[in-house]
Specification:
This protein is an alpha/beta fold. The chain has a single domain, classed as NAD(P)-binding Rossmann-like Domain (Rossmann fold, 3-Layer(aba) Sandwich). Helices cover about 45% and strands about 20% of the residues. It is built from five helices and four strands; from the N terminus they run βαβαβαβαα. Strands 3-2-1-4 form a four-stranded parallel beta sheet, with helices on one face. Strand 2, helix 2 and strand 3 form a beta-alpha-beta unit. The longest helix has 13 residues. The protein is globular. This is NAD(P)-binding domain-containing protein. Keywords: NAD. InterPro entries: NAD(P)-bd_dom, NAD(P)-bd_dom_sf. Pfam families: GDP_Man_Dehyd. It comes from marine metagenome.
């Protein structure tokens, strides 16, 4: 099965991607690589599956509707697992619109 995993460089998204690859699925991973956490953490997680023949990583922001449409047109995933989300409770209180854009608008695309 060809699965699109959003947030694939995050803690949970990365683990989900690895499990899918171990199961024999093809994975298209998407992550915007924001710098809320140290970007080196995401790069380190990606090293576990970047070299896997069934893994494709795309650095895309889910808020970019045209980029997301292109992903679906080009890769034609059979399933989507949405693990993408802007993290951080305190930051969400200070910047609620950032969370709406990332977690709601991005999911809708």
């Amino acid at each position: 099965m060809k699965v699109l995993v959003t947030g694939s460089a995050g803690f949970i998204g990365s683990a989900v991607s690895i499990r899918l690859l171990e199961r024999g699925d093809k994975v298209i991973g998407i992550d915007n690589h924001n710098n809320y956490y140290d970007p080196k953490l995401k790069e380190s997680r990606l090293q576990r599956h970047n070299n896997h023949e069934n893994y494709t990583h795309l650095r895309i922001d889910l808020e970019n509707r045209s980029a997301m449409e292109e992903v679906f047109e080009k890769h034609k995933p059979q399933s989507v697992i949405n693990m993408a989300a802007q993290a951080g409770v305190r930051y969400s209180i200070e910047n609620p619109l950032t969370y709406i854009d990332s977690n709601i608008v991005g999911f809708a695309h």
